[in-house]
Structures are given as structure tokens and as C-alpha cells.
Amino acid sequence: MSEPDVRLVRMSDAEVEAWLPIAMAHYEEARREAGDTPEQAAAGRRASEERFFPDGRIVDGQLLHAIRIGDEDAGWLWVGPWDDSGSVWWVWDLMVHPGYRRRGVARRAMLAAEEIAREHGAVTLMLNVFADNEAAVALYDALGFRAASLHMAKPL
Questions:
Q1: Which of 20, 21, 49, 88 lies 20 to 30 Å from 29, alpha-carbon distance?
Q2: Residues contacting residue 70 through CB under 8 Å, at least 6 positions apart
Q3: Which domain holds residue 33?
Q4: Structure pTM?
């Protein structure tokens, strides 16, 4: 199977405004599924919004893209620097909509993320992935990512 022609298109302010509650709800739910209490998950969401979207718009330097296949919306990719040094970049969020999964879209988006980070002077690209997302873990491993930190939990 050939990989689709994936394009990244920077989101407009209006698109970011529409995207933000959807993406943050997804993030908060993923944190709960990973073991956060509802309060912890909500606090994590608020911290992310305050740091990166203080007025509902993405802060300068962070890059939020729609993933497109032709004219179709296949998901989103958010990358940006950790701090002002710019040497360490993060994939803050990658979402491929269900109908586009298992078609190479995430792989293509991740390769684009690497190129974007490199073009901006990054020497390291980091990401977090929830351990139960086995498909994502396998993809990142295949792309050369290695564990830099590991959080473990045991329900009591």
C-alpha cells in the first residue's frame, strides 16, 4: 500500500479557536484514562491552555497544522520549542482521525514534524505518549524515538 500525499497546513486563528476545546477535551480524557483523577486531568488541561493558548490563540513559536489529504481533514499536528533556546522541540499533539488511521498518515506527519523542527534549529525532538496507545508507541519506536523518561502507575 502506498502512503497518501499528506500535507500540513498552518491553522488560522479561527481554526485554532475551533480546534482548542476539541483537542483539550481529548487531552483531558487521555490523562484520565492514563490514571489522573478528574481534578488532575483538568489541572493539566488548564496548565497547557495557560502556557500555550493564554488568550485562546497559540503563542508565537508554536506551530499548529491541519493534516490534509487532498482537501480532506485527516487530523492535526502541533509542534514547537520547549523554551526560548529552540534546541529542543516537542510534538505536543498528533491526532489522526479514525477514518485515516493505519494508512501511513501519522508516519508522514511525524517525518514532517522532524523536518520542521530541524528547519527551526532543533537538535532534539521529544514527545509524550500514553503507554496504552500501542500503535503510537510502535510508530515512534520505528521512527527512532527512545524512552527518555518513564512514568508507571498501579491502581490501588
A1: 88
A2: 5
A3: 6-142
A4: 0.91
